[in-house]
Inverse folding.
């Protein structure tokens, strides 16, 4: 679980880091963790926090699932943070899921779909078709071309990986330009990456407006 950032776009001055912001009375990170802790096929969960928080994790997180939730310190980038979490993962699991704490509404069906892809030896990423027209622009904002949106998807997490593949991808990525997600690192290896159906509810909370939307979704779920 990648929760090593500070989420400055979503936070007001002096506010808690985004992953700790309350959503319907519970920290966003708690919402993000719940579907994985409740899933019968998910084992240990590594939570990557900012360095100072990993040294003294929130009490609610420590008590959430004793012995099953492991807390480690993140790095300077999301990619480094995931690599830290991967190194802390105990021996045994052969499939790894990487999820962002900023997505508090993943569900069991979504988790099942990406796991099924990793079991076949590929990388599984959830994605949604684009509803808007997509245009490429230059630095001045002038349109260069309009692209066929039918061939594009907006990618979400959780993403699933054969463990050995993800470990190799992170090892080879050292010193390279950071990637925006872990699937990119595997694409560089030539590993097959398959898109499965994402969820419109699998919102990524980035701005203050997103927090308001997350509050509304959580209220519809009764806070679950």
């Amino acid at each position: 679980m990648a929760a090593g950032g500070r989420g400055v776009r979503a936070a007001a001055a002096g506010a808690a880091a985004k992953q700790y912001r309350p959503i319907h009375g519970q920290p966003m990170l708690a919402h993000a963790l719940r579907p994985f802790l409740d899933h019968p096929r998910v084992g240990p969960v590594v939570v990557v926090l900012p360095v100072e928080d990993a040294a003294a994790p929130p009490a609610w997180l420590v008590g959430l699932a004793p012995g099953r939730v492991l807390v480690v310190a993140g790095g300077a980038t999301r990619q480094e943070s995931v690599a830290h979490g991967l190194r802390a993962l105990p021996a045994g699991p052969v499939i790894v899921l990487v999820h962002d704490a900023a997505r508090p509404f993943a569900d069991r069906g979504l988790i099942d779909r990406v796991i099924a892809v990793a079991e076949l030896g590929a990388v599984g990423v959830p994605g949604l078709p684009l509803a808007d027209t997509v245009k490429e622009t230059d630095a001045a904002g002038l349109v260069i071309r309009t692209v066929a949106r039918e061939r594009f998807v907006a990618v979400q997490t959780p993403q699933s990986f054969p463990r050995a593949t993800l470990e190799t991808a992170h090892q080879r990525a050292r010193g390279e330009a950071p990637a925006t997600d872990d699937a990119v690192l595997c694409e560089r290896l030539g590993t097959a990456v398959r898109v499965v159906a994402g969820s419109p509810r699998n919102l990524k909370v980035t701005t203050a407006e997103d927090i308001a939307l997350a509050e509304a979704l959580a209220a519809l779920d009764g806070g679950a």
Notes: The helical segments are 28-37, 51-55, 59-62, 78-88, 108-118, 163-173, 182-189, 208-220.
